[in-house]
Amino acid sequence: MKYIDNLPSMDLMRSEKMMFAQLIIPVESAHRAISYLGELGLLQFRDLNDDKSPFQRTFVNQVKRCAEMSRKLRFFKDQIHKAGLMPSPHPVSQPDIELEELEIRLAEHEHELIEMNGNSEKLQQTYNELLEFKMVLQKAGDFLVPGESHSEETELDENVYTNNDYSDTVSLLEQEMQPGPSNQSGVKFISGIICKSKVLRFERMLFRATRGNMLFNQAPAGDRILDRASNEMVQKTVFVVFFSGEQARKKILKICEAFGANCYPIPEDTTKRRQITREVLSRLSELETTLDAGLHHRDAALTSIGFQLTKWMNMVRREKAIYDTLNMLNFDVTKKCLVGEGWCPVFAKTKIQEALQRATFDSNSQMGIIFHVMDSVEPPPTYFRTNHFTNAYQEIVDAYGVAKYQEANPAVYTIVTFPFLFAVMFGDWGHGICLLLGALILIAREKRLGSQKLGSFMEMLFGGRYVLLMMSLFSIYCGLIYNEFFSVPFHIFGTSAYKCRDATCSDARSVGLVKYRDTYPFGVDPSWRGSRSELPFLNSLKMKMSILFGVAQMNLGIVLSYFNARYFSSSLDIKYQFVPQMIFLNSLFGYLSLLIIIKWCTGSQADLYHVMIYMFLSPFEGLGENKLFWGQSVLQVILLLLAVIAVPWMLFPKPFILKRLHTERFQGRAYGILGTSDIYNDEEPDSARHPHESHNEEFNFSEVFVHQMIHSIEFVLGAVSNTASYLRLWALSLAHSELSTVFYEKVLLLAWGYDNFIIRLVGLAVFSFATAFILLMMETLSAFLHALRLHWVEFQNKFYSGDGYKFRPFSFASLTDDDD
Question: What are the coiled-coil residue ranges (predicted)?
Answer without folding.
Answer: 99-126
